[in-house]
Design a protein that fits this description.
Structural class: mainly beta
CATH class of the largest domain: Mainly Beta
Helix content: under 10%
CATH topology of the largest domain: Jelly Rolls
Largest sheet: 8 strands, antiparallel
Number of helices: 0
Amino acid sequence: MEVNADFSQRVLIDTNALDWIPSPLAGVDRRMLDRVGDEVARATSIVRYAPGSAFSPHTHTGGEEFFVLEGVFSDEHGDYGPGFYVRNPVGSAHTPSSEGGCTILVKLWQMDPEDQTFVRADTRNGDWQSTDIEGVDTLPLHEYGPERVMLFRMAPGTSTPLHGHAGGEEILVLEGELADEHGKYPQGTWVRSPGGSRHAPFSDTGCVIYVKLGHLADVRGLNTGA
């Protein structure tokens, strides 16, 4: 299966408008954003757990990262409420579930095997850092090689200068509305921009976005297992 599998192209999706697709396990549905492979795949998805649902025990052969959008996601290692960012490196394993239901952004098979760092970051209690641009703050979540993951917060009426992303950029708008010269992106918008892309973001209303940089430089070079 291939979904938005040409990583040289820009992709813009209103995730709120996508249909939910049932997974092989009852009570677990997903909205596919990009995918290369079938059930073992390099994939980016919005995944919804119904209350009381659980996933079977599994090993992350290609690594897993997720951001909790709603509800509480649980496994044998802990409970993760809204705003938690979690990285489970290549070779890790767990048995996920959700007592009350939850919705998470999930990325699979997108990690360097040498990166064995576990991350459990509660962004709602994070240490935001100011930038050189007034009204713009960042919350770093992880960095390894060319990959950087962070939250980016813009106060109402702020803008950033034109800049490029040599290794690509992926964003999910968590709050408010982001905009640039290509359009406006309200809450729930997912944008994947290829390596070499450029833009000058701004926000009239203010916004918070999940940002992942540098991971699209050599997508086809990854071992997806597909």
